[in-house]
Backbone:
């Protein structure tokens, strides 16, 4: 199963967790989530091995076009790109607006340099 399949399984499991009413069911679903994340980590390791531990070698990076990515941080290291921008200020503004609506951890990531340029963490009220 590819990473898209893993992402879909995680999203479905998360929805089931949100709808679960008993503690036993939530614990079971947490265990399933842990297994899914372990599987994703294994796929990532395979990818790193296949690209000689340099994943950028296999990617074509368009310079100057939508370099600033607003990403949601999952499990301390996984980044899910939400939207890309040409301008850093616009990307930061969008990140703050999205964080105000959906609490979580977000970063602005430069695809060209590979650096995190801004970060915001919003906790649910």
Residues:
């Amino acid at each position: 199963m590819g990473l898209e399949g893993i992402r879909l399984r995680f999203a479905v499991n998360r929805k089931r967790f949100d709808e679960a009413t008993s503690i036993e069911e939530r614990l079971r679903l947490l265990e399933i989530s842990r297994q899914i994340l372990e599987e994703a980590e294994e796929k990532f390791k395979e990818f790193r091995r296949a690209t000689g531990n340099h994943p950028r070698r296999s990617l074509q990076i368009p310079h100057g076009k939508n370099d600033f990515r607003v990403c949601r941080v999952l499990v301390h290291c996984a980044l899910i790109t939400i939207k890309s921008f040409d301008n850093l200020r616009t990307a930061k503004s969008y990140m703050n607006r999205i964080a105000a609506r959906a609490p979580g951890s977000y970063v602005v990531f430069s695809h060209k340099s590979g650096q995190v340029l801004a970060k915001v963490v919003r906790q649910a009220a």
